[in-house]
Specification:
The complex is a heterotrimer of chains A (82), B (242) and C (115). Helices cover 83% and strands 0% of the residues of chain A. With 82 residues, chain A is mostly helical. The longest helix of chain A has 25 residues, at 52-76. Chain A is flat. Chain C has one domain (2-114). Chain C contains four helices and no strands. Chain C is elongated, with a radius of gyration of 19 Å. Chain C starts with a helix and ends with a helix. Classes of the chains: A mainly alpha (82), B mainly alpha (242), C mainly alpha (115). Chains in contact: A-B, B-C. The A-B interface holds A 52-53, 56-57, 60-61, 64-65, 68-69, 72-73, 75-76 and B 65, 67-68, 132, 140-142, 144-145, 148-149, 151-152, 155, 159, 230, 233-234, 237-238, 240-241.
């Protein structure tokens, strides 16, 4: 196993854990933050797979804008999932 | 009985369609098509589609970033559709969320550190976004990431200053002008050479800023358009807060 | 002659990277062991800023071609990390997170009482 494989395995593990947290947790604010973490890790993975165009887009839209829009939505509705 | 009949019919149809589509080659192989570039020397080319783009893309479009060459030049019409989809999404969010009187918003002053810092960083982030979409045909990036970065700089201002809101008229004007530029460039290509979005400007030297014909013009237009649309979405979402 | 200077610069760069990784390690240990939010915030911002600055400068010294870029990144870290930290700390104070019982001073409360 070379360094690339090890690092990408670690990143994929973090990504899967963040995705499961975002889907399962009852606190919607934490879910939004977990989905932002997932987008950030995905953008690092895109960069490692030599797709910098997609990585920039994913980092700007997934980690910053869509998380902000989700948090605004949570602010105007309810924070806890029933 | 009716349901069973319908199900069997659907399965039969699916099998027929699957067998029909199995005969058609998708994507990879080009070997049966005549070689467009040197038709006399070798009649057929053995290149796959990605290889073809990587080999001929620089001569075809003048852009060094092949992703941009595909997005704006080879598949430019699809990009026009994508930008329209984004416009539709922005319009939907605005029509659902926009509230007229901003006075209702409960104003809570943020930290002095945050205010000064965001005022300081705002210009740099705008500069970075503009760099991304102006150099879209040379380095990784382009109109969509650059527009998103510009919108995130406005998001920073929205978070730091609760009273701040972008003027909708200016957003409207910049968004419409950018879309108009895109369509007019395409129509000029149609008038000059007979193809929509034809690359009619001189290519120049590759790897220089003024190269690749109309690609930088279109990408700047896309950047401004995406930036103003996403800023509009953020503004509409902030407007709900009380 | 220039080779020797480059070698010395590389050695200095590796020393900088070692110092930076040491501070990053201290920051992660502090993040686990500190008692309350504000103390953890301190390790997570001060030590991390110093560590990453040192690593960036070290990388720039090892390959001088990267020095301008790494200095720009360092400037942005210096600008953004304290802003984020102060916003987070202020938000948690406003949200009502209690201080650790061993805390000595609460400047924010004093300033509010003066107003």
């Amino acid at each position: 196993m070379d360094l690339f494989t090890i690092v990408s395995l670690i990143l994929i593990t973090i990504m899967i854990i963040a995705a499961i947290i975002a889907a399962e947790i009852k606190d919607l604010l934490s879910a939004a933050i977990a989905s932002g973490v997932m987008s950030l890790v995905v953008s690092i993975l895109f960069y490692m797979l030599q797709a910098p165009d997609v990585a920039i887009t994913e980092a700007a839209i997934g980690a910053a804008l869509s998380m902000a829009v989700m948090i605004f939505g949570i602010k105007s509705t309810k924070r806890w999932e029933k | 009985m009716k349901r069973v009949l319908a199900l069997t019919l659907a399965i039969l149809l699916f099998i027929v369609f699957a067998m029909a589509f199995a005969k058609i080659p998708f994507g990879e192989k080009m070997s049966n098509y005549p070689d467009y570039y040197n038709p006399i020397e070798n009649q057929t080319s053995n290149m796959s589609l990605p290889q073809h783009y990587l080999t001929y893309g620089k001569n075809d479009t003048g852009a060094t970033n092949m992703v941009t060459a595909v997005v704006v030049d080879y598949r430019g019409f699809d990009t026009l559709g994508e930008v329209t989809v984004l416009f539709l999404a922005s319009t939907g969010v605005g029509s659902l969320m926009y509230v007229e009187d901003k006075v209702k918003r409960k104003v809570r002053r943020s930290n002095a550190v945050v205010e000064t810092g965001s005022k300081l960083l705002f210009g740099f982030i705008i500069l970075f976004g503009a760099y991304i979409f102006i150099h879209g045909h040379l380095t990784p990036g382009g109109g969509f990431p650059g527009g998103a970065v510009i919108a995130s700089s406005f998001l920073l201002l929205y978070l730091a200053y609760p009273k701040f809101h972008a003027e909708h008229k200016k957003l409207n004007v910049s968004e419409s002008l950018a879309g108009l530029t895109f369509v007019i460039v395409g129509l000029l290509g149609l008038i000059i050479a007979g193809y929509f979005l034809y690359n009619f400007l001189p290519f120049g030297l590759p790897t220089y800023l003024f190269s690749a014909g109309v690609i930088p013009v279109i990408y700047v237009a896309i950047g401004v358009k995406v930036g103003s649309e996403l800023t509009g979405i953020v503004d509409a979402m902030m407007g709900v807060r009380e | 002659m220039s080779d020797i200077i480059l070698l010395i610069l590389q050695i200095i760069g590796y020393i900088f990277i070692s110092i930076g990784t040491f501070f990053l390690l201290l920051a992660s240990i502090g993040l686990l062991r500190m008692p309350d939010v504000y103390n953890r915030m301190q390790t997570a911002t001060k030590a991390t800023t110093l560590g990453s600055l040192s690593v960036l400068i070290g990388v720039g010294l090892i390959d001088l071609w990267w020095l301008p870029k790494s200095l720009i990144i360092a400037a942005f870290i210096v600008l953004t990390a304290p802003i984020g930290a102060s916003a987070l700390a202020r938000a948690s104070y406003k949200h009502g997170v209690k201080l650790w019982e061993g805390s000595v001073v609460d400047k924010y409360k004093e300033e509010k009482e003066e107003d």
